[in-house]
Design goal:
The chain is about 35% helix and about 15% strand. The protein contains twelve helices and eleven strands. The strands form four sheets. Strands 5, 8, 9, 10 and 11 form a five-stranded mixed beta sheet that branches. Strands 1-4 form a two-stranded antiparallel ribbon. A two-stranded antiparallel ribbon has the order 2-3. Helix 2 crosses helix 12, helix 4 crosses helix 9 and helix 5 packs across helix 9.
Length: about 325
């Protein structure tokens, strides 16, 4: 109703989406479907929210089949504690260090300095991160994104409409993936094995986040080696490293090597979060997937002044919402 009223009740078609952090991408997918079906030529996609301070709380009511609700209510596992388990896993499996996590924050804070839309525009040092309060070991306060008010909007048109109006080199949506996990994969980041009766056979399947991204690459007809820039869901610094591997930008356990070599900073081989990411924006849940699309659009047009990834032609986003929701969008020029 908020957006319908803001449009002035002008008779425009309205569709509402909610998929937690994947909301913006699902709304974009709905708009694209309307255009591809020939129902509309131009769609305005908007995501915005005001978010209370502090930890995001579980929704009201009882949802005993929702692992996120169970995590909140039965384990008291707020998001920072959940993120800390991922961080500890990287340390145990791949030798990541608290200094690596701090380096992600330092990089993103530096990127955000040049972003006029960022909420936090302040350079930080690794010492600043490591000396900030421990929230959930091994994560410090500056390793974790804030909750935030925020909004983002995208205008999407048909190719024919763009041509009629002289847009000869537009940024094109090549793919939108909003896959759900495959039962019984209820631990969404752990690979499963195919089973025949009680005997385990075959190779490990892809995790939920990997399969989500695979679907985007398949639709776009592109591969990770063709990506020039990525905007990923850095709710914590350690999660950015996980996403780099989920996107296929490097092999498992190699994200720290890319980070240490400077490959993921602007000017490196594959810049990640040139906008500054959620580290600089905070988490405005329905807005962030669209904000990523906005950033990639500016990057591909060469309009990201002060933080431009030179020569960028293909960009990818990644988000994970409440259980069962996630998104990946590929844009190209």
């Amino acid at each position: 109703a908020t957006f319908a009223q803001a449009l002035g009740w002008n008779g425009a078609k309205v569709a509402t989406s909610y998929a937690a952090c994947a909301t913006g991408a699902q709304a974009l997918d709905t708009a694209r479907a309307q255009i591809l079906a020939g129902q509309v030529e131009v769609a305005l996609v908007v995501g915005a929210d005001t978010t209370p301070k502090g930890f995001l709380a579980p929704n009201a009511g009882e949802r005993w089949d929702d692992p996120d609700w169970l995590r909140f209510r039965l384990l008291g596992m707020t998001n920072p504690a959940y993120f800390a388990l991922y961080a500890r896993r990287r340390m145990d499996l791949y030798g990541a260090t608290a200094a690596d996590f701090a380096a992600v924050k330092v990089k993103n804070a530096r990127h955000g300095l040049a972003n006029p839309n960022a909420r936090y525009r302040k350079e930080v040092s690794a010492e600043d991160v490591l000396n900030s309060a421990v929230v959930a070991d091994p994560l410090h306060l500056l390793d974790i994104c804030a909750t935030s008010d925020g909004g983002a909007a995208v205008v999407l048109t048909s190719g024919e409409y763009a041509r009629r109006h002289g847009l000869t080199d537009p940024v094109t949506v090549k793919a939108i993936s909003t896959l759900t996990p495959v039962f019984p994969q209820t631990v969404i980041d752990m690979p499963l094995f195919s089973t025949e009766s009680t005997r385990v056979t075959g190779a490990p399947q892809r995790t939920f986040k990997e399969s989500l991204v695979d679907a985007a690459y398949d639709e776009a007809g592109l591969g990770p080696d063709e990506v020039d820039v990525a905007e990923v869901y850095d709710l914590s610094t350690a999660l950015e490293l996980d996403w780099m591997e989920d996107l296929g930008l490097c092999k498992r356990g190699e994200a720290e090597q890319l980070l240490r070599a400077g490959d993921t900073t602007i000017g490196g081989r594959i810049p990640v979060n040139p906008s500054g990411g959620l580290a600089c924006f905070g988490e405005a849940v329905p807005a962030q997937a669209l904000a990523q699309v906005c950033e990639l659009t500016w990057q591909l047009r060469g309009q990201a002044e002060g933080r431009q990834v030179e020569g960028a032609r293909v960009g990818i986003t990644a988000n994970q919402g409440l259980f069962g929701h996630g998104s990946s969008v590929i844009l190209a020029r």
